[in-house]
């Protein structure tokens, strides 16, 4: 049986993260298969791009899956996303897998993780006796999947998510076998830079996986591709790596899929003047006024700040 890296995207934002993660694994020449589990809210365009990057794109909707998952979900609706993540244990056509959250980025080849056993993971920076469930090695098994669902329904999760459940279920991780403790370089949280700067300076260059923990995800920022700057971030180094990969390799694929349909690229785009001038005759001033009144100003083109500034300058002179 083959082995695979597995990630999860429940919506289009996380799908972008998954695309960047998949590309980063490919760019670092993984020999393993790539699998992404997606929720029903992922758009057709995002699915099409995922199909180009991943070997397998599997739609997992807890409410449509087998009876056990359905019953578990009825009892614990609060754990919806968690149940979706636990689906990774049903990938029994693979002998061993490494799960990676969609907000991780690979910065070198990590195929050696497949030498580890279930459940191997790195310590959580917030509570090192717990492992962080952003990166873990596991063996797909319908039996384990069933037991995890049952455990979920009976005990819930102490943190409301999958990390609490997995730590309770694989409760001997902290004490039983040091080989199941992945070095922090396989799941280095971007927060670690603040919490232990000397260690980051000493070991950070060896990091193999960066995990963008916290509420602000890489795709929550705005990126200026011409200046290669991430807006509003005090720690741009790692974020820049994410954005460089996204804008160079993922965004062109998304643009092809969306065609003329507008979508939020996350990049600040300044159209060339020639395009703006060509666009001017297409909209009459009456139409333009009507659009403004309806709140549909063309901020990227004719109604851009630069153009308004020019009009004001002319008027004020």
TrEMBL record:
Belongs to the glycosyltransferase 8 family. Glycogenin subfamily. Self-glucosylating initiator of glycogen synthesis. It catalyzes the formation of a short alpha (1,4)-glucosyl chain covalently attached via a glucose 1-O-tyrosyl linkage to internal tyrosine residues and these chains act as primers for the elongation reaction catalyzed by glycogen synthase. Glycogenin participates in the glycogen biosynthetic process along with glycogen synthase and glycogen branching enzyme. It catalyzes the formation of a short alpha (1,4)-glucosyl chain covalently attached via a glucose 1-O-tyrosyl linkage to internal tyrosine residues and these chains act as primers for the elongation reaction catalyzed by glycogen synthase. It is found in: Cytoplasm. It comes from the Eukaryota. The lineage of its organism: Eukaryota, Metazoa, Chordata, Craniata, Vertebrata. This is glycogenin glucosyltransferase. Keywords: Cytoplasm, Glycogen biosynthesis, Glycoprotein, Manganese, Metal-binding, Transferase. SUPFAM superfamilies: Nucleotide-diphospho-sugar transferases. The keyword Ribosomal protein does not apply.
